[in-house]
Amino acid sequence: MPAAQSPNQNRLLAALPAAEFERLAPHLEPVEMLLGDILYESGGLLQHVYFPTTAILSLHYVMEDGSSSEIAGVGNEGVLGISLFMGGNTTPSRAVVQTSGQGYRLKAQLMMQEFKRAGLMQQLMLRYTQALITQMSQTAACNRHHSLVQQLCRWLLLTLDRMPTNELIMTQELVASMLGVRREGVTEAAGKLQQAGVIRYRRGHITVVDRSGLESQVCECYAVVKKEFARLLPDVLQRQDISQQSQNAGREAVLRTTDRSRSRK
C-alpha cells in the first residue's frame, strides 16, 4: 500500500524551519501530475510554483519549428517556477511531466510573500536556483561534447536519483525528445547499454540492472551536477539522510518485534 503523500517528501519543503513551513502548509495544494501534462507553456505567466514529491518534471526549450530538448529536470529535490521569484514572471521554457506522480502547488502571490520575508525560504530558493543553473549549463555542454551513450547514462542516473525504484516507464521516443536527438540514436545507445548488461529495455520500460556499470560509462557531467547540489543544499541533503535513517530504524524495529513474536510461538 503506497504511503500517504506529505509535503516533507519534497526536500526543499522538508528543510524549512517549523515557523516558515507552518505559514505555507495550509496553502499547499496537493496535485496529481500525469505523464505528458504541460504545467506551463513558453511565455506564459506563472500562476503557481510546484513542489514535486513523487513526480518528475522536465523543462524543455522549444524551437520555432516545434522541436525541443530538455534543459533541466526537477524532482523531489526542487521546485518548478524559479522565474517567478527571480523577477521574470515568465519563462521561455515549457514544463512537462516526465514521470507521473504527485506534488504540491502554491499560488504565486503566496510564494512571493514568503520570499520577500528574506528568511530561510529565500536563501533556499536562491541556492536551489544556482544549482539548477549549473544543471542547465552542464546539460548544454554535455550535449555538445559527449557521446549519446554518455548523455543517456547521465540522464538515466539523474532520473533514477529522483525515483524510489530502478524502473522507468519511458518510451524511446520520449527519451529522444528529452535529449533532443533522433529516435534511432537512442535505440542504438540503449542497445549498447543493454548488450553491456547495464539496462534491460522492453517497450515503454527501462530497467537499470547495474547502476555501477551505468556510472562507469557516464561522463563527468553527472558528478558535477550532483556535487553542486550537495555543496549548495547541504541542509536539504542532510534532512533527507536523517529521514532515511529514521525510516530504516522504523523498519528494523518492526522486524525485531516480528522476530520476537515468532520466537515466543
What does this structure look like?
The protein is of the alpha+beta class and 265 residues long. It has 2 domains: 1-144 and 235-265, Sandwich (Jelly Rolls); 147-218, Winged helix-like DNA-binding domain superfamily/Winged helix DNA-binding domain (Arc Repressor Mutant, subunit A, Orthogonal Bundle), CATH 1.10.10.10. Helix content is 50%, strand content 20%. It contains 11 helices and 10 strands. The strands form 3 sheets. Strands 2-6-4-5 form a 4-stranded antiparallel β-sheet. Helix 5 (120-145) runs antiparallel to helix 10 (221-232), helix 6 crosses helix 9 and helix 7 packs across helix 8 (183-195).
Distance between the termini: 28 Å
The proportion of strand residues reads 15-25%
Number of helices: 11
Q: For this entry, what is the oligomeric state of its chains?
A: single chain
Mean pLDDT level: 85
What is Rg?
20 Å
Number of domains: 2
Q: Report the order of strands and helices.
A: HHEEEEEHEEHHHEHHEEHHH
The biggest sheet amounts to:
4 strands, antiparallel
> In what order do the strands lie side by side in the largest sheet?
2-6-4-5
CATH domain fold name of the largest domain: Jelly Rolls
**What general form does the structure show?**
globular
In the CATH hierarchy, the architecture of the largest domain is: Sandwich
What percent of the residues sit in helical stretches (DSSP H or I)?
Answer: 40-55%
